[in-house]
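thread from #wetlab-drylab

HS: before we spend reagent money on co-crystallization trials with manganese (II) ion, can we at least see a predicted complex? here's what I'd submit
DV: go for it
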Amino acid sequence: MKYHQIDSNLFIKNRKKFMAQMKPKSIAVFNSNDIYPIGSDSTMPFQQARDLFYLSGADQEETILLLFPDAIDEKHREILFVRETNAHIAVWEGEKLTKEKAFEISGIKTVYWLTEFDKVFYDVMTEAESIYFNTNEHYRQSVETETREDRFIKTCKEKFPAHKWEKSNQILQKLRGTKEPEEIALIKHACSITEKGFKRILQFVKPGVMEYEIEAEFMHEFLSNRSRGFAYTPIVGSGYNAVVLHYIENNQECKAGDMLLLDVGAEYANYSSDMTRTIPVSGRFTDRQKQVYEAVLRVKKEATKMLVPGTLWAAYHKEVGKIMTAELLGLGLLDKADVQNENPDWPAYKKYFMHGTSHHLGLDTHDYGPLKTPMEANMVFTVEPGIYLPEEKMGIRLEDDVVIQENGEPINLMKDIPLEIEEIEDWMNRS
Ligand code: GLY
Ligand code: MN
Ligand code: MN
């Protein structure tokens, strides 16, 4: 791993919170992700299953976590199974988790080799009445691939048909939505790496640079700061490309006079940052660009103020819609008739601002977290309004990551990343 080891106390706390929600005499199992194939002997780089990481810190393939708070044998209350390492693996693949290292990272005292899983699992299942399966019920999930977790669930249902089934997901959505201080520090660190990348490109962008050259500058800064790289596929879209919401080709030349939208965030220790800035390729905003930019910035500032305990996500989006509508009327992009005749299910402002304003952020960029219950302190959200004008070949989105506070406005983890027009122009015109 490139990141500094995380204090195992975080994972100890996370497991404790999860186990406190489990029913009596139940077992929960969490599997790592597969290493996904490309072709011949090529594979995608490994990414740990976020729930397993959240509960153990184990960042290695072929890992299983088993929790059984009521196990008769105390040493079977928390078990981590890891792939057995040996001298051959050490030479060909490098260092893998030893039992000692797995304990040091996770705080789990009982570490077995994965080859022992079937035997130990059978033994503990004879004591248990139910098993928690870990399915992915994120509101935006659309997974077609069968995961290691899916395969485990299938086999387990066949082998143990008399056990009751429970869901881990509801517990995890709630727990992962509210961050521990250690997690906030990690997200903040990811934001600080993003900040370095953005400050670097502010002095790099000029007419004629290619979008992929900008992507490369970010990557250089990210890797140099112990990040694995981008937390999500970066969007570096100049001119018209900025209105294509999921533009990821990043293969066009940045032209003088165009705006450039950068939706780019570093990951650190599997935690995401998620930033969007929109800057003028020539280093100075035109009056029209300023006008639209200021409108988006005002919406962002107003929206941020609403991210306080008690706010409901759906009601918040309605309010932001009203603020955006007022700005679009001010810009002359909507008129009163558009608003009076609007379809309540697809209000007029959606023509120019068609995506959501906020999502939970954490181990996943679109993180797990409750969306139907009131917001609570220590939830981390993005705030990301935008206005997209295809006819003007211009899309402006501004996005920061904030932490909800018990009292008052949220803390902005990206407060040091240039955002105001003067700051952006100042950074771009430094010699
Ligand atoms: N970068 C993905 C998002 O802003 O939601
Ligand atoms: Mn983003
Ligand atoms: Mn986002």
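DV: The domain at 9-177 is CATH 3.40.350.10 (Creatine Amidinohydrolase; Chain A, domain 1).
HS: ok that's useful, forwarding to the group
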